[in-house]
Amino acid sequence: MAKQKIKRKELLKSPDEFLTFSERAINYIRDRAKYFEYAGMAVAAAALVYLAVTTYLGHVNRKGQAAYNEAYSETAQGKTDIEKAQSLFRKVTEEYGLSKASRLVPPQLGYLDYQRKQYGEAVKHYETFVKGLPGDSPYRFLSKLALAAVHEEKGEPDEAIEILNDLKSDTENVFMEQTFLSLARLYRVSKQDEKAGEVYAEFVDRFKASPFLPMAKAYLNEHPS
Fold it and tell me: Does 170 lie in the same domain as 95?
């Protein structure tokens, strides 16, 4: 059956779908011109704010990094002026608190307090730093190891042991070898020889290539279970 031929006149009369859609779109925008004008102004304003904030944060980051470097260089000298270093690190947080470098200030202050034997303040700084870190950050594990050391120096071995046991059970811990050794040593100084032996036995089983393996084996030989 032959297809029915569409006459040219009918073809001209039939509306073009694209043109019809375009016309509707134009009418829609025209009828809502004020809305689109306001929306355009809002987008432009948001872009300006974003640009301004980005530029400002870039400036703050540069200034904060420079201030942090100055403070850090003070600690890298042979004999650190602790009070001066603390003052310089506090400047980073007080004047450039929005900078990325300011996030690294708490553990620096914690270590300086540790050197001054201000263990309570050191604990606060390390805990502040840990709370602001993602769960898988290697800095979190290092900071907890440092925190355990501070608790030990503060005369709180139980708190230190608790922290190290938490680290020992954390499968994401990238400093597991150091965690085992610190925990075993703490058990030893706390006169908990049986628990120290358990940690050393597990250490020997897990870290067969460790340079500390002879030390762990020697302890086990001296303290057979």
Answer: no
